[in-house]
Recover the amino acids of this structure.
C-alpha cells in the first residue's frame, strides 16, 4: 500500500494471525487496528474499504494495523461467528499496539467485532478514535458504544446499502444519540466513493 508496509505474524488464541502494518513517513502518533468484513463472504485484510481506512489513518500520522481473522489467509483456526474474532482483535492489540494512543476501526462484520473489542478495552486503554463503516447491525447484535466513546466515534453508512440497510444502523444508533454520517447513493462497498470515504475519515481524525 505504501513503501513502509510490513508483513508479519503474531500468536493469537487460535494460532498464528497474519497481519500488515502500514507506517507513516513520520513517527507514528499511535496505532489504529482495523478489522475486515465477514470471512465467509470473502472478507480479508486486503478488502478495498479496509485499505482505504488504513490509508486515511496513515495520512493522519497513525500506524495502521490490518490483520486476517482466524481461518482467513495465513491465519490459523476457523470462523467463530464473532466471538473468537473479538479475541483475535484483542490479541492483535495486546501484541502489536500495547503502548501509546490507540484507535479502533472496522468495516461491516469488522465494525461489529471492533465494537466488541471496544467494549472490552474501554476501561483499560485510552482509545482516541473509533471509525465504524457499514456496521453490520442488521446481521449481528452490535454492542452499544460506551457513552464517553461516542464523542470520538465516526459512523459512516451508505444510503443505498443493500447488504446492511441504513435503517438498521439508525435503529442501533438512535438509543445512543450516536450520529451517523450517510453517504448519498452509497452502497455497502462504496464503489466509486472510496476517495470520499477516505476524506470523511481524514476529517474525523
Amino acid at each position: 500500500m505504501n513503501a513502509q508496509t510490513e508483513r508479519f505474524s503474531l500468536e493469537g488464541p487460535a494460532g498464528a494471525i497474519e497481519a500488515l502494518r502500514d507506517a507513516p513517513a513520520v513517527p507514528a502518533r499511535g496505532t489504529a487496528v482495523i478489522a475486515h468484513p465477514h470471512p465467509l463472504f470473502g472478507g480479508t485484510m486486503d478488502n478495498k474499504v479496509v485499505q482505504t481506512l488504513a490509508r486515511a489513518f496513515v495520512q493522519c500520522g497513525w500506524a495502521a494495523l490490518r490483520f486476517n481473522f482466524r481461518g482467513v489467509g495465513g491465519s490459523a483456526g476457523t470462523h467463530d461467528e464473532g466471538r473468537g474474532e473479538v479475541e483475535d482483535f484483542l490479541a492483535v492489540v495486546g501484541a502489536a499496539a500495547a503502548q501509546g494512543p490507540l484507535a479502533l476501526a472496522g468495516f461491516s462484520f469488522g465494525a461489529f467485532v471492533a465494537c466488541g473489542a471496544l467494549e472490552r478495552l474501554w476501561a483499560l486503554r485510552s482509545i482516541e478514535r473509533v471509525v465504524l463503516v457499514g456496521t453490520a447491525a442488521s446481521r449481528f447484535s452490535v454492542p452499544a458504544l460506551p457513552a464517553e466513546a461516542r464523542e470520538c466515534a465516526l459512523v459512516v453508512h451508505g444510503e443505498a446499502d443493500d447488504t446492511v440497510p441504513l435503517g438498521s444502523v439508525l435503529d442501533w444508533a438512535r438509543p445512543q444519540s450516536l450520529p451517523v454520517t450517510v453517504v448519498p447513493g452509497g452502497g455497502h462497498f462504496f464503489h466509486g466513493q472510496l476517495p470520499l470515504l477516505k476524506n470523511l475519515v481524514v476529517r474525523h481524525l
In short: The chain has five helices and eight strands. The helical segments are 48-59, 83-96, 109-121, 166-173, 194-204. Residues 83-96 form the longest helix (14 residues).
